[in-house]
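Input chain follows. Return structure tokens only.
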Amino acid sequence: MTGNNSTTRPKGAEFSRRDFLRSGAAVATATLAPGVTLIAFGGSQAQARADAGKRWGLLIDAGRCDPDCSACVTACSDENGWKDTGHPETDAQWIRKVTLKNKFTGHVSSAPVMCQHCEEPPCVDVCPTGASFKRVDGIVLVDKHTCIGCRYCMMACPFSARSFIHEPVNNQKTHAPRGQGTVESCTLCVHRVDNGGTPACVEACAATGNEAIIFGDLNDPTSDIAKRLAEYPTSSLRPDLALNPGVRYSNL
């Protein structure tokens, strides 16, 4: 069964493998909440923390991803302060689980989808203010101060990976600024990465024993992720667009 490509894709929607592959800096100190400022994702500051020699990415093994497991989604929500209230038309969806069904064999698998951190991100190309930007290490972010909420980036993203914040934001995290009227998406837990850590989804998946998500430097041939990419066949979403995503999939 195939699904549509709208930005409000229902939770738990089923897709065929083919459909899945096709779906694919001003600085300010405006306070959002006590201790939280929009400056956190300001372009110049965020770029200063990046290493131009690295290209951070994820390798997701759908063969190891338990369809009934949502540890990665829960971890992302807890880490970054967004909540899934069961209303996908307005809820934030930094990461979501997608069910894949082979129309010919009936085989069902599952995989998480998030911002693909493209080398050539369409969201950056269409942003009129420069709020959507890519760091030199490949992480794609949104500067919440310069985002005007036009949502062009949401329309340009072929992966439905961005969300618009409709409601006032309360009790947010200092490391993950959010603001009503702005757009947001997976940051690859940039606050963790910049301090030598790994994204929350990767850590949570490893804790379940599934180890379906691997994080690392795609430019480092000695890294675990680079070795696996060189050894096993993998796929990217929407390869026809030549975006060279930093997120790769195996066993789809």
